[in-house]
Amino acid sequence: MNIILLGPPGAGKGTQAQRLVEHRGMRQLSTGDMLRAAVKAGTPVGLEAKAVMERGELVSDEIVSKLIDAELTAMGADAGAIFDGYPRTEAQAHALDALLAQHGRSLDYVIELEVNEDALVERITGRFTCANCGEGYHDVFKQPAVEATCDKCGSREFKRRLDDNEDTVRTRMGEYRAKTAPILPVYEARGIVRRVDGMADIGTVTDAIEAILAA
Ligand code: AMP
Predict the structure, then answer these.
(1) Model's pTM, two decimal places?
(2) Cα–Cα dist 105/103, whole Å
(3) In whole angstroms, what is the distance from residue 161 CA to residue 111 CA?
(4) How many CB atoms lie within 10 A of CB 113?
């Protein structure tokens, strides 16, 4: 099973991908995570991507498609793939078709998380993660059960993304509207788009996605 999770920043793609990884043993391929790791490690890709990401603009198609290719090669053929934050442009959608064919895979579903954009700024600017295990939290919607302590691993260190500020979020949404939303019709024509209410609570969204995958 190979699926794309599509939706604007803050729609819940990463959260849902992590849950599918836990429930179904699929692999999450998040170009955002890969790029953040490259920035942290100071690799040539990271050096090129850093300023672009801080502005909320899109990194080059070539860079992200190469990252996906490397990840597909590394993960082997057995596990299903969840593409999270990729493809984000028409060129990336074409590149993904070619990569899937090369790796003997085909796309089952494109799951669009439908959200109310006005609510996304609050969702994004309030989010933070455990610095140790990556568990996601939110200032308003999901505080750790014990104050300042990760529910999952007990770490007391948390981090926030540099690009999760209001200005950058608005740019990221503009990029989504201009460059990413237009790729949906391509997948619609193939009959593989399914829509889920991304404003529902996390578990309800997961159930809706699971129902699609089980159909
Ligand atoms: P994300 O974690 O998916 O929100 O991505 C964070 C940032 O990484 C984006 O705002 C872009 O600057 C960059 N990025 C992630 N994925 C892509 C992609 N597929 N194409 C271009 N830029 C990307």
Answers:
(1) 0.94
(2) 6
(3) 25
(4) 23
For the chain, what is the total number of helices (H) and then of strands (E)? 9, 8
Tokens encoding 94: 């074409």
So what's the pLDDT on residue 163?
A: 95
Query: Residue 11: which of 164, 125, 82, 113 has the closest Cα?
Result: 113
Predicted pLDDT at 117:
84
User: At 77, is the pLDDT very low, low, confident or very high (cuts 50, 70, 90)?
Assistant: confident
Distance CA 124, CA 164 (A): 6
Q: Residues 6 or more apart from 201 whose CB is under 8 A from it?
A: none
Contact by Cβ (8 Å): 1, 108: yes
For residue 134, is it left (φ>0), alpha (ψ between -120 and 50) or beta?
Answer: left
Residue in 58, 90, 168 to alter for ligand 1 test, most ligand atoms within 8 A of Cβ: 58
Atom of ligand 1 nearest to the CA of 175: 10
* Positions marked catalytic: 13, 88, 127, 161, 172
Identity of residue 211: A
Atom 14, ligand 1: residue with shortest CA distance: 32
Tokens of 83: 């593409």
